[in-house]
Write a structure and sequence with these properties.
Elements: H1 4-16, H2 19-26, H3 30-44, E1 49-50, E2 56-57, H4 59-81, E3 93-97, H5 99-104, H6 107-111, E4 118-122, H7 128-133, E5 139-143, E6 151-165, H8 167-173, H9 180-185, E7 188-190, H10 197-206, E8 214-216, H11 220-228, E9 234-237, H12 238-246, E10 251-252, E11 258-268, H13 276-289
Parallel strand pairs: 3-4, 3-5, 7-8
Antiparallel strand pairs: 1-2, 5-11, 6-9, 6-10, 6-11
Helix pairs in contact: 1-2, 1-3, 1-4, 2-3
């Protein structure tokens, strides 16, 4: 039996990223938080927290964090079943989402479930499934085809992307046409080193696989603003860039050449009932914003 107070302290450290933050969150002293975590580590015989800035979970710590969130979800479900007789824990639900989803269609889904607090982990759709496998999150928006064993997978539809740049940038780099070589030479705008959208689009559009020169800008809206400023060419969801193309601030690199990324919402089966309302909200929001599967 794991001491619930020690488990809560560990979860708070990993959620806030520090022992100080956990102390403030739980209204305890930092020494009390440290002692509870150390007692839990001593009892289990393994480290649970990497004392870095921010503090991060070891493999064992991530599994215990998942356990803490599963308990919290069960408590919420029981509270609902008993008509509110039990208090609802003030523990944020940790879910993995993509930055582009957050910037476009996701917020209405979260707003539709006001009784939940959220701790959003931003990662590429190709890699958020791994967070689910590791037990680091309670649910995730992932790329279709990466179903995680033990999870319910709900198809959401596809997020459609368009490649674009500033008109002056296009005149400089693509005056003689858009080829794989020119796209490789022109500076691109990439979210992070996990982001493969640009390479996928270049291959789909030209058949080539050039090595791309790129800036790394880990913020969806900042990528669009960087393109407007002429720093590079980028890719973002059509709902974000189409108005800017229509206004003349941006131009499409190859007219009509879009890239669709199919998304799914994955929930471990033990969380299915507790997250049923969120699942319905995610599917409803996606139907109104994504390209049907």
């Amino acid at each position: 039996m794991i001491d619930p107070a020690a488990l809560a302290a560990l979860a708070a450290v990993l959620r806030t990223g520090s022992f100080e933050g956990a102390a403030a969150d739980l209204r305890l002293t930092q020494s009390a938080i440290s002692q509870r975590v150390k007692t839990l580590e001593d009892r289990l015989g393994t480290a649970l927290v990497r004392r870095t800035r921010p503090a991060t979970a070891t493999v064992a710590g991530a599994r215990l964090l998942q356990h803490a969130e599963e308990i919290s979800l069960l408590d919420r479900r029981l509270a609902a079943d008993l008509g509110g007789l039990l208090p609802t824990p003030d523990t944020p639900l940790r879910i993995a989402v993509t930055a582009d989803s957050l910037a476009t269609w996701l917020l209405p889904a979260l707003a539709a479930v006001p009784d939940l607090l959220f701790d959003l982990v931003i990662d590429d759709q190709d890699h958020s499934a791994e967070l689910l496998r590791q037990g680091a999150v309670a649910a995730a928006v992932t790329l279709a085809g990466g179903a995680v064993p033990g999870c319910d997978a709900h198809a959401l539809g596809s997020l459609r992307y368009r490649a674009y740049c500033a008109p002056a940038f296009a005149a400089r780099w693509f005056a003689d046409g858009v080829t794989a070589d020119r796209l490789g030479a022109a500076p691109a705008l990439t979210f992070n080193q996990k982001d493969t959208l640009q390479r996928q689009w270049v291959t789909q559009a030209t058949g080539g696989k050039p090595r791309l020169k790129t800036h790394y800008i880990p913020e969806t809206n900042a990528i669009t603003q960087a393109a407007i400023a002429g720093i590079g060419w980028g890719m973002n969801p059509t709902s974000m860039v189409d108005p800017l193309i229509a206004a003349g601030h941006l131009t499409e690199i190859i007219a009509g050449q879009t890239l669709d990324t199919p998304l799914i919402w994955q929930v471990p089966r033990q969380n299915r009932d507790a997250l049923a309302d969120l699942t319905r909200a995610m599917r409803r929001a996606a139907r109104g914003a994504l390209v049907p599967a």
